Amino acid sequence: MREVFLSNCEKNFVQKTIAEGYRLDGRNYNECRKLNIAFGSEYGSCIVSIGETKVLSQVSCEVVQPKQIRPNEGLLNINVEISPMAAPQFEANRQTDLTVYLNRLLEKCYKDSKCIDLESLCIVVEEKVWSLRVDLKILNHDGNLIECSSIATLASIAHFKRPDVTRSGESIVIHTLADMDPIPTVLYHYPVCVNFAIFKNNILISDPSYIEETVCTSTSEDGTNTGGLLVVGMNQYKEMCLLDLTGAAIYNSNIVHRAIQSAAERCKMVVDLVKKDIMTDDNLRQKRTKINFADIITTDHAQSLCAKDLCIRLKNFTINDIEMEEETDVSKSIDTDDNTALSKYDVPSLPQTVELKAKKGASTWIDISSESDED
Amino acid sequence: MKVSVGDVVLPGDYCEEISPKDEKSRVVIGPGLRKEVDHVYITKAGILKKKNPHTYWIDSYQKRYVPIRGENVIGIVTQKAGDIFRVDIGGSTTAALSFLSFEGATKKNRPELQVGDIIYAKLVIASKDMEPELVCVDSFGHKGRLGVLNDGFMFKCPINLVRKILNPKCPLLDSLKNEWPFEMAAGMNGRIWIKANSMRESIALGNAILGAEFLSDSDIKKMCNNIAAILAGHVS
């Protein structure tokens, strides 16, 4: 993996900004980016995007022999791949620390928590069971990969339907999707991993972006590392499935408690969204409408990019204010037609009368009327 | 397919206007164009632009930087090796910056650059066969505006955005320079460094620059007024 270099000024600036209570992209500490789940034409394929981070997930199944120690259970396999499409520093087909980390966390969250009913995947005990395989591909890395991957795994497993199987005596018939309706996977509970960035042992940021993640796990100027990433896995019943910490050790348990409470609310919201989207998708399929990934590419993408996805943004900045201001400007100009002094918010159409002044503190009125007399 | 100046073009198109009028005139072709045997072909998707008298190029959307000689870029110092610094400029390899390429530097008097610092430098060697080389000093030995950039904040943006805001016709910098004092360095490798008195002003400036990517000139002015109004409402 090629190295990514973080400059000192970026580190210092982000840490100062977060210490003062702001975030680079204008969110609050506990605000998350927009979550979007889109399903593909096959059962079990979905693209989940949190802001600009995108993960593609596909579930497939095949009939195999079960493990000897568990002869009546099906198998579940989760595989994460990070391609160079995600970010320039990743190399193709190379296992990095990050890949191993994601794979292990997702295994812990979905296999060890026993959220999927593996016994329902059994066809013939000790001979034939269904083996589910979840393949995740990271399409774009803009921070918070673990949360995006876990939502993608959950959504695709919940969306997936396996072919129906009937037994008649000795023979087993696996029906095609056209023959008999496929059967959805049975999920006992819906766990989701939520990611938090910890700065200076005290500040908890939910849904960190790429630069916030890199800064909080890097060492500061005096060589100490005071930040880390905390991953909390919970289900919609507020039961904790997973807890993982990267980076500096935590000194007080208060942070963990706050993170768990915040994660509980977020998990409930995410699971509700996943269930709602799956139900909408089901209804659309029953009406025989075609569903595919082309729907997530909208025609007004260029405009929507500048409105809400800026990575550096003031808290109250929206693109809609521009149209509103146009209306108020029109009404103002009717009243103050002979007002020659320009207020500091008006941009003179010919900038040659304005000069850059070295100002300290708040802006002052720019006196234009005297200069225009000299013209 | 035959296209003309000002069209949106795709790779493989060719333009008949790009040819010398007589034997003595020269035609300059810029990025995105390539001369094959008979015609000049277009190799990038974008808009075909022309500058009088004979300069043609393609305006395209790009995020990865390809080092080109003579451009000013912002780099991050990644390593000190012997008598050169290794600087990351976002290209396929790191660039080399000799420690003698600073104003007033001698063998005994080394510049004080640490790993992780940001520098504004000029590319003097950039080809696809060799590692690029930078200098922080002009041909007379003066520093000019090159060198180390202290404090502030650096962010990445598409390369065409840097070209857009540096264009003298773009109203972005003119609109912002009256609102609050700031310093800015734009590297042609898609990195912009900004510094203002307070952190909110820096964020507002970054917001204005990134927001101007898809806006027209009049929209840019309105957006700058908007940002200045938001900032003034909160600055104490």
From TrEMBL, chain A:
<dbReference type="GO" id="GO:0034473">
    <property type="term" value="P:U1 snRNA 3'-end processing"/>
</dbReference>
<dbReference type="InterPro" id="IPR036345">
    <property type="entry name" value="ExoRNase_PH_dom2_sf"/>
</dbReference>
<dbReference type="InterPro" id="IPR050590">
    <property type="entry name" value="Exosome_comp_Rrp42_subfam"/>
</dbReference>
<comment type="similarity">
    <text>Belongs to the RNase PH family.</text>
</comment>
<feature type="domain" description="Exoribonuclease phosphorolytic">
    <location>
        <begin position="31"/>
        <end position="163"/>
    </location>
</feature>
<dbReference type="GO" id="GO:0016075">
    <property type="term" value="P:rRNA catabolic process"/>
</dbReference>
<dbReference type="InterPro" id="IPR027408">
    <property type="entry name" value="PNPase/RNase_PH_dom_sf"/>
</dbReference>
<dbReference type="GO" id="GO:0000177">
    <property type="term" value="C:cytoplasmic exosome (RNase complex)"/>
</dbReference>
<dbReference type="GO" id="GO:0071035">
    <property type="term" value="P:nuclear polyadenylation-dependent rRNA catabolic process"/>
</dbReference>
<dbReference type="GO" id="GO:0034475">
    <property type="term" value="P:U4 snRNA 3'-end processing"/>
</dbReference>
<keyword id="KW-0694">RNA-binding</keyword>
<dbReference type="GO" id="GO:0034476">
    <property type="term" value="P:U5 snRNA 3'-end processing"/>
</dbReference>
<dbReference type="GO" id="GO:0035925">
    <property type="term" value="F:mRNA 3'-UTR AU-rich region binding"/>
</dbReference>
<dbReference type="GO" id="GO:0071028">
    <property type="term" value="P:nuclear mRNA surveillance"/>
</dbReference>
<dbReference type="GO" id="GO:0000467">
    <property type="term" value="P:exonucleolytic trimming to generate mature 3'-end of 5.8S rRNA from tricistronic rRNA transcript (SSU-rRNA, 5.8S rRNA, LSU-rRNA)"/>
</dbReference>
<dbReference type="InterPro" id="IPR001247">
    <property type="entry name" value="ExoRNase_PH_dom1"/>
</dbReference>
<dbReference type="Pfam" id="PF01138">
    <property type="entry name" value="RNase_PH"/>
</dbReference>
<dbReference type="GO" id="GO:0071038">
    <property type="term" value="P:TRAMP-dependent tRNA surveillance pathway"/>
</dbReference>
<keyword id="KW-0963">Cytoplasm</keyword>
<dbReference type="GO" id="GO:0000176">
    <property type="term" value="C:nuclear exosome (RNase complex)"/>
</dbReference>
<dbReference type="InterPro" id="IPR020568">
    <property type="entry name" value="Ribosomal_Su5_D2-typ_SF"/>
</dbReference>
<dbReference type="InterPro" id="IPR033100">
    <property type="entry name" value="Rrp45"/>
</dbReference>
From TrEMBL, chain B:
<dbReference type="InterPro" id="IPR012340">
    <property type="entry name" value="NA-bd_OB-fold"/>
</dbReference>
<dbReference type="Pfam" id="PF21262">
    <property type="entry name" value="RRP40_S1"/>
</dbReference>
<comment type="similarity">
    <text>Belongs to the RRP40 family.</text>
</comment>
<dbReference type="GO" id="GO:0034475">
    <property type="term" value="P:U4 snRNA 3'-end processing"/>
</dbReference>
<protein>
    <recommendedName>
        <fullName>Ribosomal RNA-processing protein 40</fullName>
    </recommendedName>
</protein>
<keyword id="KW-0698">rRNA processing</keyword>
<keyword id="KW-0963">Cytoplasm</keyword>
<dbReference type="GO" id="GO:0005730">
    <property type="term" value="C:nucleolus"/>
</dbReference>
<dbReference type="Pfam" id="PF18311">
    <property type="entry name" value="Rrp40_N"/>
</dbReference>
<dbReference type="Pfam" id="PF15985">
    <property type="entry name" value="KH_6"/>
</dbReference>
<feature type="domain" description="K Homology">
    <location>
        <begin position="152"/>
        <end position="198"/>
    </location>
</feature>
<dbReference type="InterPro" id="IPR037319">
    <property type="entry name" value="Rrp40_S1"/>
</dbReference>
<feature type="domain" description="Exosome complex exonuclease Rrp40 N-terminal">
    <location>
        <begin position="27"/>
        <end position="64"/>
    </location>
</feature>
<dbReference type="GO" id="GO:0071038">
    <property type="term" value="P:TRAMP-dependent tRNA surveillance pathway"/>
</dbReference>
<dbReference type="InterPro" id="IPR049469">
    <property type="entry name" value="RRP40_KH-I"/>
</dbReference>
<dbReference type="InterPro" id="IPR004088">
    <property type="entry name" value="KH_dom_type_1"/>
</dbReference>
<dbReference type="InterPro" id="IPR036612">
    <property type="entry name" value="KH_dom_type_1_sf"/>
</dbReference>
<dbReference type="GO" id="GO:0000177">
    <property type="term" value="C:cytoplasmic exosome (RNase complex)"/>
</dbReference>
<keyword id="KW-0539">Nucleus</keyword>
<dbReference type="GO" id="GO:0071034">
    <property type="term" value="P:CUT catabolic process"/>
</dbReference>
<keyword id="KW-0271">Exosome</keyword>
<keyword id="KW-0694">RNA-binding</keyword>
